[in-house]
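Q: What structure does this chain adopt?
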Amino acid sequence: MWNKIMQIAVNKFVEEITNENYEIKQVEATKSEFAKKKSKLVDQMITNFVQVTNDDKLVQSRLLLKTKGEPIIISLESGVINLPFENVKQVDNFFDQQEDEVPAVVNLIVKAPAINASGLRIDQICSVTELGQAPEEFGEKITARVQELLDTIEENSASKK
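A:
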């Protein structure tokens, strides 16, 4: 499915996700555990992600943060554009040629009711190749971004009370 520089044809990506032909790796923690071990937990997400993509598979590597209310789901997903797997039907709207190969990207996806009005935040982090080549560097960036987003969730939750 992949070639050496981690590219995938758009139509192949859509087919693989539609058929649920991807791996899900999950790590769980409470918010207080995350506060103490955030770098270690994000590094585990990255390790899981890289291991699966090295096997030429699409992946959703996620961290389930348990809270008093709904859990916060933080995911790294392999993709072709900044859309989560569940919106795969919209992917082809962004490409003229479905057979074209495009670089596989890493999306950081946060699902939580208080993140924003839609309950979904997507940040494109880098290419799959870049993450595989510099996991420590991107680990720091991803950890910092996750903390920023958790702070936003906290602020938005406090303002709703």
